[in-house]
Amino acid sequence: MSSVSKGNAHISEVQYDWRAPDDYKTYRVNVPSSTRSNAPPSVATSHSVHRPAWPRLPRRRFVQQFGRYTNPDEDSALRRRQYVYHNGLYCLHVGSNRVSRFRNFTPQSFAASPELQSKARMFIRRELRVFEFLNVDASQSDNQVATRRARNAEFLLEYIVAILKTVDIRGSGGQAEEMLQEFLGRDHARLFLHELGAWLRSSYMSLENWDRAVQYPKTTG
């Protein structure tokens, strides 16, 4: 769940890691600007008695070996997504028409569509597992590292959904990219938003079907 300020389309804060109506954390969002330095993200304040400190998030690091997953198809899909980011591959554009059934969306239409929001969460949850600082290995299921990574991922999921509700991720101003780059790095943030936008525009509701259909430029070497 997130709290946003729509004045000038800026997100002022994101509320996440909800345990109860008055037990959650709040991330104060720095207003992006073209002159802002690459400072570390703000500290999240907690509304619970635990008040854990928000860790500084590593940037642009990938899983070298994925953890042990029960579903081998899921493991293969994650490796494919890792390959996409490692090689900077952007999926090919598909036009919006009756044949493709691709449809453009706006922040307003996204905010008004529970279906689009659910679809976005499905994609974001898997996509974020590509990054090492968010990946929970099966061997870490009971330790503090796993808990921290899970909370980091939950925060970023809510943060990205809040962005989608308020900012055009394909906007020429690059505001969405600016807001995400402090966590993923600029190149990866740009690629992430491109892939997410293509998925949301598509008619696919299953990641498996999307994986079979999405096309990328051929790589050489």
Written account of the structure:
- Helix content is 41%, strand content 7%.
- The chain has 221 residues and is mainly alpha-helical.
- The radius of gyration is 17 Å and the shape is globular.
- The termini are far apart.
- The model is unreliable at 1-8 and 31-70 (pLDDT under 50).
Count of alpha and pi helical runs: 7
Shape summary:
globular
Provide the low-confidence segments as ranges: 1-8, 31-70
Q: Into which percent range does the helicity of residues fall?
A: 40-55%
Q: Report the structural category.
A: mainly alpha
Total beta strands: 3
Percent of sequence in beta strands = 5-15%
Q: Average pLDDT across residues?
A: 74
> What pattern of helices and strands is seen along the backbone?
EEEHHHHHHH
Strand order of the largest sheet: 1-2-3
Give a short account of the largest sheet: 3 strands, antiparallel
State the main characteristics.
about 220 residues, single chain, mainly alpha, disordered N terminus
Topology:
Blueprint: E1 13-20, E2 23-28, E3 45-46, H1 72-86, H2 107-111, H3 114-128, H4 144-166, H5 175-184, H6 186-201, H7 207-213
Antiparallel strand pairs: 1-2, 2-3
Helix pairs in contact: 3-4, 3-6, 5-6
Structure summarized in a few sentences:
The chain is mostly helical. The protein has 7 helices and 3 strands, in the order βββααααααα.
